[in-house]
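ASSEMBLY PREDICTION REQUEST
Request ID: AP-0331
Submitted by: J.K., bench scientist
Number of chains: two
Total residues: 357
Priority: normal
Notes: Please return the full assembly, not individual chains.
Input sequences:
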Amino acid sequence: MKPYIAKFHSRLGQPEVDTQQYFENVAGWPQSRLSIAYVTGFILSLLFTLAAFTLATHPALIFSLSLPVVAAILGMLALAQFVVQLFFFFHFGRGAAARERFWILMFTLALVGILVSGSIWIMYTLDARMMPSPAQMEQYMNSQTGI
Amino acid sequence: MDTNTTTREHEPLTIHHTSIAEQDLKKDQTTFFGFWIYLMTDLLLFASLFAVYGVLRANTFGGPSGADIFSAPFVLTETLILLTSSFTMGLTMMAARANRKPLVLAALAATGLLGLSFVSLELSEFIKLIAAGHGPQQSAFLSAYFTLVGTHGLHVMIGLAWLLALGISIGVRGLTRPNMRKLLLFSMFWHFLDLVWIFLFTLVYLWGIL
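STATUS: Completed
Returned structure:
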């Protein structure tokens, strides 16, 4: 068979593929621990979600924590669930392909951090950075007689 | 000269026969990588909407604040539905790996139904808010809230349309290589929506309720 005919044939007939190997070959997913990964990820995510929900609805349940502390714990629970899902649902693990994706994710998260924290920081301290009003400038200029 | 041409004609035959499978594999690896890049740009889109929400969340303009309109049990229900749909997506992938088409279709259908109920709950919340006069035009907080949560809901809706098309394709053609590739990309997309929702759940709803 000529190559281009073989290629056309493969597109037309959509040949069978080794499904056992496919996800490992293309995405570098683990061969044997796939089912364990999904079950573990699901249970851990459920636990983190329910813990966060209980803490948010009953902030004084365990200790009498102040609200900023509760908010920080909730944020950490979200981060923990983020990591759990990355490992068990996205199957980050060993292998060059997973490492490549991991570092792209890390770079994106750095951009996310700069974008979100930078926006909030600048917008919440905007007053201190703004040009004074004309009345304030007038007053300032009157006090500085040399100008 | 004559022998040269014969070897030239023969060589590609043997080389191409094996390399088509390898080329296909390489192509799918590239597609998978490209899709990951797309997901990362989508993450940046959500990050900018999160930043806008973070800046505007206190600007309620006399309207309701997050604590007034968010219901914790309602959001927990939404979260558990989406999380379960993420798990049934995992079941779909396990069935696909085991080459069991009926199981794949069943798990995919379960994922779709859970996704549909999630979107319905989200839309019912939006409709309730708008009917009570708390639409996106009432305050900067509500504009940012509707944009952020609505963008996520729109992604889920697009995912549902994709899921339907994928289910039909698998039903008709079976677990072929193109369908396995689409399943792989779709599972990434679906888990990604769950990943974004963790932060919506925590940073918007739970922090809003506190």
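REVIEWER COMMENTS: Chain A has two domains: 1-93, 97-147.
SIGN-OFF: pending second reviewer
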